[in-house]
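Moderator note: this is an archived Q&A kept for reference. The question asked for a predicted structure of one protein chain; the sequence and the answer are reproduced below.
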Amino acid sequence: MDSQTDSSTSLWLGAPLEQLPTPALTLDQVKMRRNAERMQERCRSLGVRLRPHVKTHKTLEGAELATGGTRRGIVVSTLAEARFFAAGGFDDILYAYPLPASRLEECATLAQRLQAFQVLLDNPQTLDLLRQRPLSGGKRWLVWLKLDCGNGRAGVRPTDPNTFALARAIAEETPEKVTLVGVYAHCGNTYSCRDVPTIQAIARATTAAVLDFVTTLRQAGVPCPQATIGSTPSCSHPVPEMAQLTELHPGNYIFYDLQQTQVGSCQPEEVAIRVLTRVIGHYPHRNQLLVDCGWAALSLHGQNQGPMGCATIEGYPQLRLVGLTQEHGQLEAVDGQIDFGRFPLGTILALIPYHACATAAMHPVYYVHAEGKVVELWHPVRGW
């Protein structure tokens, strides 16, 4: 964020929401705090540590809220995030992305700088790279092994004998250079669910797979201190078995979104994010309203995920978003004719996005509000 942009957005502090330039990403301060506190309480009740993922909001303020002000123990998806949060006073940062060889030196710089910068791997080739690039000053690479327990993205299968061999190699072969911190599994397959029992079944299976693997390691004398799983759906409705883990790493829950309500993670009233947009055109001949929010301010994710598509229009279930170009959105009636008199040009509508993470990535500033007025401006980090 350059100083000119920062000074221009700061003019909106204290402004009523209806005065904001649109499209504008707004966040309900009270809802975010409640969402953060509920997740902290869930983890306290389970007796596990919360290591919040910050990729949804990518802001210092959001991470401070999620960590309860401790500024320790977060998960990032990019090295740009890692540097940003390190500069903001955060430590104990896990770069939860299969470590790319091309970024090894950047990771080494962070590992030397921070008390606990941790990396993730899922193949022996990356382990070899870490051994060939030892840290100085008595520091060791802090490594998590990524497990795939059914999500089908990154990670090694815990039932594969090679996975045990890789974990043992991380822990034992060069202890002066590399330490096995723990195992990490993302149960992103919960996003295919549509009710809480199905979410909990996946969480239970993922937890069991992780714990079985860690038990096998420990019984063989391989130290593996941490066992962690995470996704917002699984952590929003945790199962008792998750108390046997050491950490949970959800991320989206600070905002929640339309997708989370459809999955069953939250209630609609818990969703803190909105994209404000204005009506800029009436087209009775095609029964459409035009708004000033296109895909540059609202991710296309969710477009084909059901009748509500990329977003719902808060308070107007009779309208639906049917088209997005870069800077325009088209609204139609779900049934019958639009009453154009109800929506004069300049009318502000609030869109609830299907995917908060993808939508937030479109915006350089978030307008945090309370009692109808802007109380904070959050500036997210960008890039990789």
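Archived answer notes: The first strand starts at residue 24 and ends at 28.
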